[in-house]
Design brief:
heterotrimer, A alpha/beta (306), B alpha/beta (259), C mainly alpha (341), B: 259 residues, four-stranded antiparallel β-sheet, 27% strand, globular, C: 341 residues, mainly alpha, ABC transporter involved in vitamin B12 uptake, BtuC, two-stranded antiparallel sheet, 14 helices, 2 strands, 77% helix
Chain lengths: 306, 259, 341
């Protein structure tokens, strides 16, 4: 009896000492030995770490991480794509979790050379990708059970969304995503920053699709007022940043907007940027909230992620 | 001087800009020991001739020889060791002291070796000779026109050339300094240097020059001692000037313009 | 020796002493500045910890792999900007010349932009400095070609062509920004703000070699830059092959600026300010002003980088903002003092 207990304890401690192994988004095999001090880079990564229950282990974050609000008290090590190795090492991290695009690569190499494991977490643009991301981070942190819970939560949200979609009668609202970079120009984005993904998920029609295809946009560019009107959007969707006020008037002043059906009826949905653009554990809820705003509300709607 | 100094020669020298000939058919021969002065009305080609003789411009016709060899074909540094040119002074962008400006004359001799006290001695002497030693520590851009000219002359002298070419070195100078400069140039020529200066003052030229060269519309119309060259007839033909040529107490000709 | 001669000699000796003293002081300031910059940073290492640290470990890595290349690069880049500025000011005979003036900064930026928006991933990063260097050299070649007429290169033509080139390059960069992806646009924008944050030995090693080469080429130009101050005709009469000299000077500056831009982006003001500061402290003789501007530039580089790292730690202030914010008022103050620059 004593021997088997000792054996059990031995195995247990062995299991506890075992590092978590994961293949990260760059295809590298990374071993995570300790989660004592985590540096988190990328808003989506940070919010997921908190959801996995590791929020109190996060000692530092990047500029784009502001959710949940508790993380704002942690020191800001800079922009995730333009890192400074010393600032991160100054936090004495035991592991760094970074969103895809963290860099520059020499800095990541410097961190690795200093013995700090760096796990790059993918930035997905679809639901399956979101689930993979949750599972990857769960595996890297040894929280696989919690990870599965989160995935199931996501699937429940998506189920609720599906049932709402099936009840939809009538037209799907044409929704145009405008990036508010410049108060005098209407910026439409292609690919990565397009907002199209969430619009489609919420069951609406992406009014910007034709523009994006025609202009072959990869980044964001100012679009002529006429093109905006030709897109005939019934709702305008704009992201807002937590420290920036967003006003209906400012959006309506953008070239072309006032002449669209959306502009004439004042139908603008402002959605907090991280909530809008991250495909992570909250994406189901985000899609639901967006769906409600697009299909069931009128006028100016503000969706924050809380 | 035991070695005969080289001669400056021009054979059938001509210079053209575009279709216009600025100089044509210039033949001359200058030796060390004599002070030659180039005269002529504005636009006659004096500065062009000086630049050709200096090796700065390439002749369109004919050639310039120094000691029997074409000067303009030597590398710039070798040229600078033989001849120095004084031209109208320009604005200096940085506040070098007058001493530093005069010292620049030593540059052609400093290539490949560090500066020595001899270089500074030569510079100091040049400043003394041009009566600008007391200006040495002043910032060159702050000097008056006349002071700057004397310092620039010092630079030219510090270069220790065998051929000295000067374009209007007496501009901006008051009469006592004008005389001093010409005395200096005469002394330089007596020391064996070949010296040619462009002057616009006929009488100053007549007082000091051993030879006068008169340019008119790009051609050399007279070459000889002042008494020979400065005649009333020639002055009228070249300058359109009615003048009487008197005799200066020194025996040299003196031009008196008639009204 | 007559008294006036003695006075001249004494004055000359005084002048020499001043030049040498200032150079010596600058040189003596450099090593302590480097050590200070090495010792300070967001990763706390107290002076007492140094002996242990030098034996190995994470702090040792921070010192040798992160801070040391960075500090050396800042000194190198600053020194190259300062030296290039001094040479260009002598070449163009104006205290207002700046390497950015004749299209050099724009050339480097355009090279970097073309590479940023054309490549992606690791390739993008490692090739970027090379692209910036190539861009600078090509820009100078183009500008020289356009300004070379009848065996001569007029300074005013050179500046004019350079300004036009800068404008066109700027427009092209803007266009590339529109066509490129959001991430690349953002990356490039931050690159243009200048800084040494990602420094590592793989970058610093080769750049140091090229930078030393450029420095050596440029320092030798000093005596003849003095002659050029009198004007091109005078310099030629003093023995300078003016066209050849201009070409050598320009290419030397192109290499120096190319390396500087490759190492730290386009950094404002150092090229303009370092030579002027030296002239104010000591004098305009290029034989002292060139190494002086190099040392001053290096000091400015090291100190600005240190401030950039410390002012808003752990964030980094973009270097160009710092140099403009400090250099601008300093320059204005010097003008107000009506200092002879």
């Amino acid at each position: 009896m004593k021997r088997s207990l000792v054996l059990l304890m031995g195995l247990l401690s062995l299991a506890l000492a075992q590092p978590y192994r994961v293949t990260d988004a760059t295809g590298k095999e990374v071993s995570v030995r300790s989660l004592e001090r985590i540096v988190s880079l990328g808003g989506g990564v940070t919010e997921l770490l908190f959801a996995l229950g590791l929020g109190d282990r996060v000692v530092a974050r990047d500029t784009s991480s502001y959710f949940p609000p508790a993380v704002l008290s942690r020191p800001d090590v800079g922009l995730f794509f333009r890192l400074n190795a010393e600032a991160i090492l100054a936090q004495r991290p035991t592991v760094v979790f970074g969103a895809e695009g963290s860099g520059p690569p020499p800095v990541l190499a410097q961190l690795a050379a200093a013995g700090v494991p760096v796990v790059i977490v993918p930035e997905p643009s679809d639901v399956e990708g979101a689930k993979r991301k949750i599972r990857l981070l769960a595996q890297a942190t040894g929280r696989t059970a919690r990870g599965e819970e989160i995935v199931r939560g996501l699937e429940r949200d998506l189920l609720a969304l599906r049932s709402k979609l099936s009840l939809v009668q009538g037209k799907k609202p044409r929704t145009l995503y405008i990036y508010p970079r410049d108060p005098r120009n209407t910026f439409i984005c292609g690919n990565e920053a397009s907002g199209a993904a969430l619009i489609n998920l919420a069951g609406a029609v992406n009014a910007g699709g034709a523009i994006q295809a025609a202009a072959g946009l990869r980044g964001c560019a100012p679009i002529s007022a006429e093109a905006v009107v030709a897109a005939r959007p019934e709702v305008i969707l704009v992201p807002f940043f937590p420290d920036q006020p967003v006003s209906l008037e400012a959006v309506l002043r953008l070239p072309g907007v006032a002449q669209t059906p959306a502009g004439q009826q004042g139908r603008v949905v402002a959605m907090e940027v991280l909530y809008l653009s991250t495909f992570g554990h909250r994406v189901g809820r985000a899609a639901l909230d967006l769906h409600n705003a697009l299909f069931e509300r009128q006028g100016f709607v503000r969706i924050s992620g809380q | 001087m035991s070695v005969q100094p080289p001669t400056l020669e021009a054979h059938r020298l001509g210079y053209r800009r575009g279709a216009r000939w600025l100089l044509r058919g210039i033949d001359l021969r200058l030796s060390g020991g004599e002070l030659a002065v180039l005269l002529g009305p504005n636009g006659a080609g004096k500065t062009t001739l000086l630049r050709l003789l200096a090796g700065e411009l390439h002749p369109s016709e004919g050639e310039v020889r120094w000691g029997g060899r074409p000067l303009g074909q030597l590398p710039p540094l070798a040229q600078a060791r033989e001849r120095a040119v004084f031209s109208q002074h320009q604005e200096l962008a940085f506040p070098f002291s007058a001493y530093e400006v005069a010292f620049l004359g030593r540059l052609p001799h400093l290539e490949g070796r560090p500066e020595t006290s001899h270089d500074h001695q030569v510079t100091r002497q040049a400043l003394h000779q041009t009566d600008s030693a007391h200006l040495a520590e002043r910032a060159y851009p702050s000097l008056s026109g006349g002071e700057a000219v004397r310092v620039a002359l010092a630079r030219v002298l510090a270069q220790e050339p065998r051929l000295l070419l000067l374009d209007e070195p007496t501009n901006h100078l008051d009469p006592p300094h004008q005389l001093e400069v010409l005395r200096l140039l005469l002394a330089q020529s007596r020391a064996g240097r070949t010296v040619m200066a462009v002057l616009h003052d006929l009488n100053l030229a007549a007082l000091f020059a051993d030879r006068l060269l008169l340019l008119h519309q790009g051609r050399l119309v007279a070459d000889g001692p002042p008494a020979e060259v400065l005649t009333a007839g020639r002055l009228e033909a070249v300058y359109g000037l009615k003048a009487a040529v008197m005799q200066h107490p020194s025996g040299r000709p003196w031009v008196l313009p008639l009204l | 020796m007559p008294p006036l001669s003695q006075a001249l000699e004494a004055a000359h000796a005084r002048r020499l002493r001043r030049y040498r003293l200032v150079l010596l002081a600058l040189g003596l300031l450099l090593l302590p500045s480097l050590l200070l910059a090495l010792g300070l940073g967001v990763y706390r290492i107290t002076w007492q910890e140094w002996p242990q640290v030098l034996q190995g470990g994470e702090a040792y890595l921070v010192l040798t792999q992160i801070r040391l290349p960075r500090v050396l690069l800042a000194a190198l880049v600053g020194g190259l900007w300062g030296l290039s500025g001094a040479v260009l000011q002598g070449l163009f005979r104006t205290p207002l010349a700046d390497p950015a003036l004749i299209g050099m900064g724009a050339g480097g930026a355009l090279g970097a932009a073309l590479w940023s928006f054309g490549m992606s991933g690791a390739w993008m990063l490692y090739g970027l400095p090379l692209a910036a260097l190539a861009g600078t050299l090509l820009a100078v070649a183009l500008v020289w070609r356009l300004a070379y007429r009848e065996g001569q290169v007029q300074v005013t033509t050179l500046i004019l062509v350079g300004v036009i080139f800068s404008t066109v390059a700027g427009a092209l960069i803007g266009l590339l920004g529109l066509l490129g992806g959001e991430a690349q646009s953002r990356d490039f924008t931050f690159w243009t703000q200048g800084g040494f944050s990602g420094s590592n030995w793989a970058l610093v090693g080769p750049l140091a070699g090229l930078g030393l080469l450029a420095g050596g080429l440029l320092l030798r130009l000093a005596p003849w830059l003095n002659a050029l101050v009198l004007g091109e005709r005078e310099a030629r009469m003093l023995g300078l092959d003016v066209v050849r000299f201009k070409r050598r000077a320009l290419w030397g500056v192109a290499l120096a600026v190319g390396v500087a831009v490759a190492g730290g982006g386009v950094i404002a003001f150092v090229g303009l300010l370092a030579p002027q500061l030296f002239r104010w402290l000591a004098g305009p003789d290029h034989r002292y002003a060139l190494p002086g501007a190099l040392l001053l530039g290096a000091l400015l580089g090291v100190w600005s980088d240190l401030l950039a790292r410390l002012l808003a730690a752990p964030l980094e202030v973009p270097l160009s903002f710092l140099t403009a914010l400090v250099g601008g008022p300093l320059f204005l103050w010097m003008l107000v003092q009506r200092v002879r620059l």
